[in-house]
Design a protein that fits this description.
Length: 211
Amino acid sequence: KTAAAIVKHRDENGPFRSRAELKKVKGIGEKCFEQASGFLRIRSAENPLDNTGIHPEQYAFIDSLCSKLQMDLSALISNPAALDRINVREMTGEGRGVETIRDIINELKAPGRDPRQEFSAFEFNRDVNSMEDLQEEMVLPGIVTNVTAFGAFVDIGVHQDGLVHISQLADRFVSDPSDIVKVSQKVMVRVMEVDLGRKRISLSMKGINQD
């Protein structure tokens, strides 16, 4: 709901120029701003810190850091070597530990860095849309939806998850399925058996390269 309100405000008023402008969005009070602002990036912001993962409550500390190094913010951000000269332990205090200081320095070195992992598209086999389309020995892409003590359930795009029994998870003995797969993992599976009457699909990962 809050995200939708942010988008609506942007559509009606144009791009945000600072993190502080988020407070103009309906539903974003001081508490919400405090919790969310460090996760939001403002591209081409007036203050370059608004395009980092540094929380606004640390901006005053950055100002003191600039004064200590006798550099303005823009010069500091464009000069990573200066950041490497900072004695991290000397800068701790007021709730900022060593790790917090290191995180701040890393953000200053790479403003605008996207913290998300690289996105890889996933697509089911377009020729397989229902259990009736399945044939034994078909090799299909799937996504693990549940891991149990006896195996893993995999969505292969037919509106009925198939089961990879623990004995079919790998070409070696497996004592714990979670050692091999995890929920949301993308895998390749082979269709072993399809029981339309009982709506059961038996799958295998044996002999299939998962890279």
